[in-house]
Structures are given as structure tokens and as C-alpha cells.
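A quick aside before the break. I want you to see a complete sequence-to-structure record at least once, exactly as it would be stored in a machine-readable document. Don't worry about memorizing anything.
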Amino acid sequence: MGTGYPRRMPELVEVERYRILAEAALGRGIASVGCPDPWFLKGAASEPLLTGALVGGRFAGARRIGKLLLLDVDEGPVVGVRFGMTGTLLVDGTDAVGQLLYSPTRTDPAWERWTVTFADGGRLVVHDPRRLGGVSLDPDVSGLGPDAATIDLVGLRVALVGSSAPLKARLLDQSRIAGVGNLIADEVLWRAGLSPLRPAGSLTPAEERRLHRTLGRTITDLTQRGGSHLGDLMAERHPGGVCPKDGSPLSRSTVGGRTSWWCPAHQVG
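That is the input. The structure line, written in C-alpha cells, reads:
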């Protein structure tokens, strides 16, 4: 993998970078498929099925829904790739993201969970030390909510309405909104001035509009900056950290099973 990048986890922003990188694999003849770790293949996917579906064909498109990368095969199925916490996509040795937070700093060929070799000798590789991702054929996306990068205000209201769950937990629920991870959620709520502990269904219409506006702007901003770890709050997400807006001590809470950093002074409950 590449070096020189701050560590981060695959959230919507990182998977979007993988999607862009995967465009370099489009239109190239597929010569072989390697599945050295059968456990990494999910659902009905198997090495014989993937080989039969891909070899001799080409990838015709690269799409993304939330944290799921979708590779369309010309006149064939759709390959779904999930990256978990430590999965990385490489195309011809190029890594669009770099070192991940919970991933070892070294590389190991044994961590290549799925490979596609092209007729021109290049390769597409999914590298995942902790095996938390997976590859599937024609993945069922019906359980995913609207993509966080494109969700409209009505969709956001549907995701929140009537819920007594903490607001951050609702944002992290991929069946409600697809793509938001821990870092993006903290950054969005901090920018919007909303407590992660607040019941999701308690937002006023004005607060819903503010959250929707902030969600879209934050995703755009972090994508342009190059990663979900590049938010304004990131440097202060540690014991003793202070709010970049008002200098107040940040609070650390566990919300939706995830460590959350937020400012009680301006993020209203």
C-alpha cells in the first residue's frame, strides 16, 4: 500500500476514492480471477462462479452505494466489494487511500483476498489484513438506505422520524442512510451543532434542514480534502481535546457502539 497518508477507515469518502480508482480497470480484458481465501467470498459467490462470470469479459462500470463498491461486468453480473475496517483496493499497484487506522503498516501477499488479472498484465486487488470485508455476486442492496451523498431532505426526515435512538446511531444505521461512518458522523454533528446523544426523532424542522444541509456540505468538503479523517474536528478527537469552534473541552461518549467526540457547549441536547 501507499505511504505518507494519515490513517483513516473506509467510509463513504474512501470508497468513493476506490470507485474512482476502479475506473482504471474498466474496459480491460479479464484473464483470470484469484480467490485465495474462500471465506472472503460471500453469499453464492465462489471461485468457479466468479471465474466463469468474469474471465473473457470486462468491467463496464464502477458504482458506489454507501460503503459498497459495485463493479458491473459487461453482459454479466455485478460484483459487490465491501471493505470492512481494513480493506484496500489497488489497481496496477496504485492505492487511492493509503494507511488505514486499524490495519498493519506492512503489506503481505497473504492478505490479498481477491484478485483480477487483466490480459495486459495489470491487476485489481482487494487487500484486507483482518478479513472484515467481502466479495459477492449480484449483491442485494435493498437493505441499504439512500446514499448519504445524495439523500434529499424528505429521505433524511424518513430516516429520523419517530426514532428514540440517539441521533448519531441513526446516522450510522446503514439501512437508514448508507455511507456514514464514525468520523463523518462526528464531523457532521459537530458542524451542525447537534448532540450525538439526542433522540433522532426530536429534531425540529429547522434542525432537520440544518442537518441535511451540513451532511451534504461535509461529504463534499471531505471528498475534496481527500478523506473522512480530514475534518476540522479530527485533530481534537483525543483525551484533552478542545472544540475548534469555542475552545470548550470535548466530551467522549459511546454512541451506537462507537467512540464519539463532541462539544456539549454548542452541540445542543
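Two observations worth writing down. Residues 72 and 78 are 5 Å apart (CA to CA). Residues 1-8, 99-104 have pLDDT under 50 and may be disordered. We'll return to this after the break.
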